[in-house]
Design goal:
Layout (H helix, E strand, L loop, with lengths): L9 E3 L6 E3 L2 E3 L8 H13 L4 E3 L14 H12 L3 H4 L1 E6 L11 H15 L6 E4 L8 H13 L6 E4 L3 H10 L4 E5 L8 H4 L2 H8 L2 E4 L14 H17 L3 H10 L6 E4 L4 H7 L9 H12 L5
Parallel strand pairs: 3-4, 3-10, 4-5, 5-6, 6-7, 7-8, 8-9, 9-10
Antiparallel strand pairs: 1-2
The structure holds NADP nicotinamide-adenine-dinucleotide phosphate.
The site of NADP nicotinamide-adenine-dinucleotide phosphate has 25 residues, from strand 10.
């Protein structure tokens, strides 16, 4: 049976000129005060070939910590080991304001970028993303603040998260910089980007796709309903053939799409971060890839 190609271990970050690993490590659940432990997680990722790190200024409150706590902790880990910052491709996000909830005004975003750089202890981030669309800001205002931050060398490239296809297309009309990435929720339990043209748009615009919650927030590892169990069973069949875990098979299912999506590994355990790289060992047949899709949809394809 004909196999789909193996994913490349590295890929371009859209039109940015930056190259990133095929998987990223995400910091939404990164919390606490153990700077050494964060360093060990970063090394687990780097040793597994994962150098693309995704955080956000709003990561903290979901862990019972203040706004900015997760960026701050990552910044302390980077400061503790000279040279580490240069080994990672650092992505963060802003634009969610506690109690507002979204603000993409030029004044807010400009201040948010500066505050993230201060917490991360870095002069620039490699990718800065708007976390969620603020429907009350005109795209021309966003374009101005992003281009200023880029010219000032604070952000090497710009991306978006949770934007619709038309929001991306409209914003791009006003920007001279390319939107290099988009970050939707994407997993076998969240198929919307496959079906609503987001991934097609990413191919057409040459944007990298960063898939958030690639395990459905852990539900693929521990299925609790018949749909998740059906997806797990379909993934297990492939995982067994390639001698990898179900979660590695789940990441590779996402990566097999021609948009070459980048799963953002959400685990905060070194062995699970390392194991994610097994996704690069899996090859899909069309029949098996579609079998996962059918399990995920719970109905046969037309
Ligand atoms: P996920 O990979 O879908 O879920 C990770 C969760 O699954 C962790 O709690 C992890 O626990 C658990 N898990 C259980 N068994 C596991 C196994 N065998 N292997 C790996 N994980 C297992 O991802 P996520 O944390 O929900 O999201 C990933 C990243 O996406 C975030 O860190 C963030 O960077 C990004 N994100 C972005 C947005 C956005 O709006 N742009 C929203 C949400 C997330 P352990 O830590 O105990 O392994």
């Amino acid at each position: 049976m004909k196999l789909l190609p193996l994913p490349d271990a590295r890929r371009p970050l859209g039109k940015s000129g930056i190259t990133v690993s095929a998987l990223a490590w995400g910091n939404w659940r990164l919390c606490g005060d153990d700077v050494g432990a964060v360093g060990r997680l970063l090394h687990a990722a780097l040793d597994a070939g994962i150098d693309f790190i995704d955080t956000a200024d709003i990561y903290g409150p979901d862990n019972g910590e203040p706004f900015g706590a997760s960026e701050q902790l990552l910044g302390r880990a980077l400061a503790a080991e000279p040279g580490l910052r240069a080994r990672i491709v650092l992505a963060t996000k802003g634009g969610i304001s506690m109690g507002v909830p979204y603000d993409s005004s030029a004044a807010y975003l400009g201040a948010a970028i500066d505050a993230s750089l201060a917490r991360l202890g870095t002069g620039h981030v490699d990718l800065w993303q708007i976390h969620r669309p603020d429907i009350l800001t005109h795209p021309s205002e966003i374009a101005r603040v992003i281009e200023d931050a880029h010219k000032a060398g604070k952000i090497r490239s710009f991306g978006v998260s949770n934007f619709t296809v038309s929001q991306i297309a409209t914003l791009q009309q006003y920007l001279t910089l390319p939107i290099v990435s988009t970050q939707p929720e994407l997993s076998p339990l969240k198929l919307a980007p496959i079906e609503n043209a987001e991934l097609d748009q990413a191919i057409a615009m040459d944007m990298a796709v960063m898939a958030w919650s690639p395990l459905g927030g852990g539900r693929i590892a521990a299925p609790a309903d018949p749909r998740a169990q059906a997806v797990a069973d379909a993934l297990d069949a492939v995982a067994a053939d390639f001698g990898v875990s179900r979660t590695a098979a789940a990441y590779s299912w996402i990566m097999a799409h021609p948009a070459r999506c980048i799963p953002i590994v959400g685990s905060q355990k070194a062995d699970r971060i390392a194991e994610a790289a097994d996704a690069l060992k899996v090859r899909w047949t069309r029949a098996r890839w579609y079998a996962v899709l059918v399990a995920a949809k719970g109905e046969p394809l037309p």
